[in-house]
Amino acid sequence: MPAILNGTVVLPDRILKDGMVQTSGSQIQSVSRRHRPGRGITEIDAQGGYIVPGFIDIHVHGGGGADFMDGTIEAVLTTCRTHLKHGTTTLFPTTTTGSMAHILEMITACRSSAKLLRSGRETGAAIAGIHLYGPWFAPDKAGCHDRNECRPPELEEIREYFRTKMIRIATCAAELPGAELFWKVARKHNCLITCGHSNASWTEMSRAFEYGMRHVDHFWCAMSSVPSLRQRFGTPMQASMAEFVLMNRDMSTEVIADGCHLAPELLEFAAHMLGPERLCLVTDCNRALDMPPGPSVFGRHDCGTPFNSDGRVGWAPSGSLASAVTGMDHMVRQMYQSTTVGLPAVIRMATLTPAERTSMQLTHGSLEAGKMADVLVLDEDLQVRHIILQGKLNQ
Ligand SMILES: [Zn+2]
Ligand SMILES: [Zn+2]
Q1: What CATH superfamily classification does 55-362 receive?
Q2: Which pLDDT does position 37 carry in this prediction?
Q3: Which ligand lies nearest the alpha carbon of 59?
């Protein structure tokens, strides 16, 4: 039953100086100004640092040399363990394009791993559900995913995945034929429906919105723009996914704030134009996290796409970016340094906002009595010092 004290507690809208977070079992018991914790309570000294909720990552592929798509329990647990060290206490394993058999293997491995993590027999970031990401991408926006595995959604395949009851976030390029079949099923399963790796127009986004689409993956990356739509449709020029998200207050999105994908002014722009309630931080991290720089594979080890990690980001052979290689703690530091929105807003983007978008805000995402005791202690430079996972001091 640890109590974390002597730190600045970061709440979604403000900070609480010299605050204390007390836990009871796996839950937060109270958040208050400092007072003496009761007898027999372990004290964790934040040493003047920050006390923040555990990070929630809704878009993550791998880490520690493993990719969720490897499809083994070992690979899933390695990834969950690696991201926990970077402050992520909850994540949504994210598929890449691949065959139906490989995607189903990944889902099965995640289901078994989630059980092991829940039972406490294994330690790592908790799995809150799958982000079904590939294979329903527009081939002209495949990015570092295998282009040959991009395909339009078909009912049989959609049903196979959703039948597992593991899918909580689901992506499909809005312009693909058959997209409405996907939206109908995803909606029935109460998923966060997103559009990504897409060259969709405003009109196509409006249609998707009517079917329940409310989120766009990695803003500015592998998505349509006014010039890309001009190539598709000619003139008059059409509004793109970017304008649709910026204009529509029910839409949220995410940024890869590793400092390599987007320049600081784009992070500042996104933080201000969308606000912390509509913007999530994601890692979009691949297996190269915490691995030495060098050649690696994005997606499943035996049939993914090759890329090179320079230790800061992944590079495809074509010279374009191949997703991130850093953890959520890095994204939080980079976002804080690049923007003027302040720490509560930045922390919100990595905690409460992703919790709200995936309907888990009643139990996760902020330091509040009754919520899961996933708590981090960060030092003054926002480096992770302690991790309390479900009430247990892990580091
Ligand atoms: Zn992507
Ligand atoms: Zn991704």
Answers
A1: Metal-dependent hydrolases (3.20.20.140)
A2: 66
A3: 2
